[in-house]
Specification:
Length: 494
Amino acid sequence: MRQNSFFKNPFKSKDSLLLLVVIVIFCVPILASYNPATQLDVIKRQGELRIITRLSPTTYFVSNGEHDGFEYELAKLYANYLGVKLKISTASDIQEIYEALRLNNAHIATAGLTQTAERQQRFDFSPPYHTGQTQLVYLKKKKNKAPKTYQDLKGGSLMVMSNSSHSELLRSLDPGIESWQESSELEVLDLMEAVHDGKLDYTLVDSSDFAANSFFFPRLGIAFSFANPQPIAWMLKKRSDGSLKRSLDKFFSIPHTKNEIKRLQNKYFQSGQRLNLVDNLTFRKHLRERLPALKDWFQEAAQQTGIDWQMLAAIGYQESHWNPKAVSPTGVRGIMMLTRDTAKEVGVKKRTDPQQSIMGGARYFSQQKSRLPKRIQEPDRTWLALATYNVGRGHLEDARILTQRAGMNPDRWDDVAKHLPLLSQARWYKTVKHGYARGREPVTYVRNIRRYIKQLKLETRIQAVQAAQAIQQAESEAASEAPTQAPETLPETL
């Protein structure tokens, strides 16, 4: 019988056993401490957060070389929170967003996506940062009654974006709508425009998209809303380690993040007091017909004075509707409606010359801002300077004195605006230096200009998005003509 070598050489066997024990002692702690890198670890190590979004005035766009949009600003905030750079890609449709997440080409989809039950089966979501309702949009006109429920849509054309929460909703209706269409080529703005132009009877939009863009489609109305508000959140691929989702949960719970979300919602979704239909149509008409000839001069004045060109353009529209030959009963004239004394003060020789008028108005406005006490911060500084442009520095100072007497803040526009109208009442204007003033006018003046600025900025967003979409469409058509190849899937850990 052959004897086992272990028993044949006991001394050597003891050495082997001792060696095995030593190896185990050293290896167990190492093995116990080994943790594979999480997705979040890899993102931080690579120093890059990849997001995919869509082009729209409220999500993401590039204007004059500057990145902007609600989703962009929020994603940038999260990238800063992680201490990494932000890399952005855009999708032409929602299916492309799904594919980017599936192939690991993007870590997060930041595209104003509704957190639907169907999507939750396929993807993880961040905590919701917004809620929205799905609304049926129609063209308001005579003999075109608004449908009260979706069952009133028989015979009308209805189109929505493909793979959207709206198409999911329509498929889930019981009883359903007999005929409706999906489009992978049209975005929200395209669909709203099609209804506004009478090419479609209806479309579905999220309430936030309607609030942000309805100014450009003044004849559109909301017929009704579907169900309850739904959460809107960032979407990411389901992963076993869950590290990125936990990081997002923490990020959205931070008070600073919540405050920034409120600020961004006000910036992109709150339209404030709207223009009425006639004012809206007039503004849109002049925007197309008059502003293009003046835009370069507004931008030149902005470069020389440091005042935003859209602010100057808004002042010009409030003053003259961008009419170079405008004249008031009191003798002020030109695009910026300068008095003779003001024109002389800022070096304007011919007030009806649009370039001179715009430059002179910009200089005068800049002077008013610089003469305010240095302690006054933005945006109050700008609103107070606008009021000065309208009513004069003396009357503004009188209103600030009345504000201070009332125990309110004379450096805060909202407080001063409450006291400017008092300057038309003898019991008040007799107590201050410069006497009577039509104090309600500067309040209306500032309110109108703020509204025009918002609309001008929205116009800039729209133009930037349309330009980017045209480039995206051209690239898509070029890619479709090129030889096809299998899409590259990045490593699962990325």
